[in-house]
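User: For my dataset I need records formatted as: sequence, then structure tokens, nothing else. Please produce one.
Assistant:
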Amino acid sequence: MRSVTLAAMSEAHPLTPKEVAHVAKLARLAVPSDRVEALRGQLAGVLGHVAKLKAIDVEGVEPMTTPFDQSNRLDPDEPGACLPIQELLKNAPAVEGRYLAVPKVLAEDTGG
């Protein structure tokens, strides 16, 4: 099987059904065999768009996480008044006495 790469995407080299099934397996997608043919064109279209994006010259463009200028506003971490225990417990889904009840996370050691 040839490698499925962006360079391999062209009209002259369409994806084979075996390659589509392989990509689906890599993506952990269960694709019925009767859908593979329909997905060939869709996957080729997606990879074609990605190839166009890859061809864009981004030399000198700084990577960014968002297209907007933004900054985090961090207030000083100063202790404040605590919520009275009874008020806190009123908001809890489950309590045991003065404590919040939570499900067990670790199994108990059974000695085996």
